[in-house]
Design goal:
heterodimer, A: 110 residues, mainly beta, five-stranded antiparallel beta sheet, 11 strands, B: 115 residues, four-stranded antiparallel beta sheet, 0% helix
Chain lengths: 110, 115
């Protein structure tokens, strides 16, 4: 079993829909990252969370440390949001090394 | 923030040859990370490179196959040696930077195809 599991693996949405991507992990962590990878391969860091909730524009990320679960929400989705969204955790005691989920491939149709 | 550049951006190589990938950061960082992303897979850490010391390799990766240099605080190289088609991947370097040392930055990646 992977230490970081994401769901769904693939997601197709209509423009304007509210989207939720989930991430569950099985290890103790010091932080959790949400990353966005576009088709060209470049990766952008969206959020780093250690507790609670963060918001940036149409993106919201939450984490529940007790339940070892995080969600990434996209409000009013747009075709430019189409990308692979990756959850990665910084395991407690591992320094800055990350363990990655397998990613959620999102396609937003106009 | 940190801006990372990588060279080359992509390459097609013959089996048995070696390729050196360069990673340049626009600020000084203590640790640089090298990741591999095989087709359809997520990222896997190859090694952590500290300036002035030997790189630390993850399980399944060895120095003879992936030698790393870290001559200063803004630059690192990863060599993929004696390549086989299984080495076809995207190779990314990454750093942690920012005021709270909490943001993970990634290079644009080097897309490698081994024939």
């Amino acid at each position: 079993k992977n230490e970081v599991e994401q769901s769904p693996q693939n997601l197709t949405a209509q423009e304007g829909e509210f989207i939720t991507i989930n991430c569950s992990y099985s290890v103790g962590i010091s932080a959790l990252h949400w990353l966005q990878q576009h088709p060209g391969g470049g990766i952008v860091s969206l959020f780093m969370l250690s507790s609670g909730k963060k918001k940036h524009g149409r993106l919201i990320a939450t984490i529940n440390i007790q339940e070892k679960h995080s969600s990434l929400h996209i409000t009013a989705s747009h075709p430019r949001d189409s990308a692979v969204y990756i959850c990665a955790v910084r395991r407690r005691g591992s320094g800055d090394k990350l363990t990655f989920g397998t990613g959620t491939r999102l396609a937003v149709r106009p | 923030s940190a801006v990372i550049s990588q060279k080359p951006s992509r390459d097609i190589c013959q089996r048995g040859t070696s390729l050196t990938i360069q990673c340049q950061v626009d600020s000084q960082v203590t640790m640089m990370f090298w990741y591999r992303q095989q087709p359809g897979q997520s990222l896997t850490l190859i090694a952590t490179a500290n300036q002035g010391s030997e790189a630390t390799y993850e399980s399944g990766f060895v120095i003879d196959k992936f030698p790393i240099s870290r001559p200063n605080l803004t630059f690192s190289t990863l060599t993929v040696s004696n390549m086989s088609p299984e080495d076809s991947s995207i190779y990314l370097c990454s750093v942690v930077a920012g005021a709270g040392q909490e943001t993970q930055y990634f290079g644009p990646g080097t897309r490698l195809l081994v024939l």
